Amino acid sequence: METLKNLNNLINSSEIVALLNKTASPLENTTDLDPLIDSIGDAKYVLLGEASHGTHEYYTWRAKITQRLIKEKGFSFVGVEGDWPDCYRLNRYAKGYLNSGKDIYSVMSEFKRWPTWMWANWETAAFIDWLKSHNENLAADKRIGFYGLDVYSFRESMNSIIQYLEKNDPKALAVAKTAMKCFEPYGKDEGQSYARASSYVPELCEKEILHMLAEILKNVPNYNSDAENVLSTEQNAFIARNAEKYYRAMIKRGSASWNIRDEHMVSTIQRLMKFHGKEAKVIVWEHNTHIGDARATEMASEGMVNVGQLVREQHLIDGVVAVGFGSYKGSVVAGREWGDSMRKIKVPEAVAGSWEHAFHLASNGKNKLVLLNKIKDEKCLSSYIGHRAIGVVYNPEHERFGNYVPTIIPKRYDAFIFLDETSALHPIHIQPDGHQIPETFPFGM
């Protein structure tokens, strides 16, 4: 990557390595998180990242931070980069609702949409089991929730809407079925055929979806059942609306579809904050590319916004803390292409000229916590430096050409967790032995 090549001499400078070495603190156990917990203070929004969607240590360290924030700071719920219907089942299981699943494995087994490993993994299962146990000691209206923030689950959300309306609102049910019927010819390829068709008929199913959303929102005050199910039905209607917009934007080049997705995730956070009351606090689990402020990357020059930027802009007065994650080498679960079988893939040593390489040199191969607010104004850190990002599709032999995001890291995050060597997480859906619990489960929860 040309940007990295041009920055090799910068990142290897003794000034940067010495500064990181001086600022970083050891990260070996949960008590080493004390400086981070103290720096979070009374913030209401804590955004916890990850540099991939398939790394064991990112999930377990996020869980450890989250446990402390729930126990010590009174956080209300966790919102993740996942589908609402799937995560809503986890939410109801964690809160101990009747008929919410006999055990965590049976609930996790309902995750069907690729990439299943993102949330149907033993690391998440361990956290949800911990959350369920924690919630048992709380009043029903004080239990900690777990929700998906993403926009991808159009078909699952529509099915959930129809199931709810069949019991609660026959008039709105007819409207929802009309919207579903409009989408039926395009339901087999994650919206790609709908995107292509919308280039010829721009408003394809927009009218039907808007009618359904309006009908549900109008009738919400009359739904007297379980308050969370009412919230879920309303949220599924918003997903249908924004997914339709997202699909139409897919066919166009540029930032539109990305922005629709991240704006949807932020609006979902706001609905959940409102639902949980004026004292609510949220912990968000998403990829670094979502929770790190886009204005500190080259995303901004491409017209892209993200969750980290929008939450900072809208809620700075309430306190926003973003924590990035990264590692030097290891292994990860990913696919070679979209829809590919999941596989364990080696993550090579970070390229010279990257942030990960600088942290490796500064930490002498040890895990470290860095409070970036202490060094955000240092001149030597004010240039763009490549920061590794691995998605659900990963080909390490090509990573230097597309997996490093030019970043001013102290402006992108408030803190950074560097894990020198990481390992692949433990998916539940691996065949034929996916049901076998890892030897170290529940990972010290």
How many beta-strand elements? 11
Main beta sheet, described? 9 strands, mixed
Q: Helix- and strand-based class?
A: alpha/beta
Q: N-to-C SSE series?
A: HHEHEHEHHHEHHHHHHEHHEEHEEEHE
Helix count from the secondary structure assignment: 17
What is the mean pLDDT?
Answer: 89
Q: What overall geometry do the principal axes of the alpha carbons give?
A: globular
CA radius of gyration: 22 Å
Distance between the termini: 39 Å
Low-confidence stretches: 5-12
Strand content: 5-15%
Kindly state the percentage of residues in helix.
Answer: 40-55%
Please render the helix and strand layout as text.
Elements: H1 2-11, H2 14-23, E1 25-26, H3 34-40, E2 45-48, H4 56-73, E3 77-80, H5 84-94, H6 104-108, H7 122-135, E4 145-148, H8 154-168, H9 170-183, H10 192-198, H11 206-219, H12 227-250, H13 256-276, E5 282-285, H14 288-291, H15 307-315, E6 320-334, E7 343-347, H16 355-363, E8 368-371, E9 385-388, E10 404-407, H17 409-412, E11 415-422
Parallel strand pairs: 2-5, 2-6, 3-4, 3-5, 6-11
Antiparallel strand pairs: 1-8, 6-7, 8-11, 9-10
Structural notes for this entry:
This protein is an alpha/beta fold. 44% of the residues lie in helices and 13% in strands. The chain contains 17 helices and eleven strands. Strands 1, 2, 3, 4, 5, 6, 7, 8 and 11 form a nine-stranded mixed beta sheet that branches. It has a two-stranded antiparallel sheet with strand order 9-10. α4 packs parallel to α7 (122-135), α5 (84-94) crosses α7 and α11 (206-219) packs antiparallel against α12. The chain is globular and about 70 Å long. It starts with a helix and ends in a 23-residue tail after the last strand. Mean pLDDT is 89; it is low at 5-12.
